[in-house]
Amino acid sequence: MTISRSRLVDTDVTRWYHCVSRCVRRSMLLSEDGSPGRKDWIDNRLKEHDRIFAISVGGFSIMDNYLHFLLRINNRAQPRPNRANRANRANRANRGQGNCTLIR
Predict the structure, then answer these.
(1) pLDDT of residue 95
(2) DSSP labels for 20-83?
(3) CB-count burial class (<10 Å; 0-12, 13-18, 19+) for 70
(4) Residue 30 to residue 36: CA distance in whole angstroms
(5) Which residue has the higher pLDDT, 20 or 88?
(6) Closest by alpha carbon to 15, among 71, 53, 66?
(7) What percent of the chain has a predicted confidence (pLDDT) above 90?
(8) Across the beta sheet with 16-22, what order do the strands follow?
């Protein structure tokens, strides 16, 4: 059974969250040759999402097959987003890949 985010995340209790994501099937997140390309890409995407969404990245760690994020929910002086605003943010985050459209 799923739980809605409004019930799962309570900003009155804490605004900081530790999130972990792991690769599956023994895949490696970073290349074995040690090239910084993927790590730089992840760093840039985090900065981009920091600007798009109401979160701040307090810190992160990128390991061979794990990502750890320390995220803070920002309650900026933003009105509650409407459906069009959410679709716009999703498009910006995905750079048009998958094109989120507003369904009425």
Answers:
(1) 67
(2) EEE-STT--SS-TT--SHHHHHHHHHHHHHHHHSSEEEEEEEE-SSEEEEEEEE---S-PPP-H
(3) middle
(4) 8
(5) 20
(6) 71
(7) 7
(8) 16-22, 66-73, 55-62
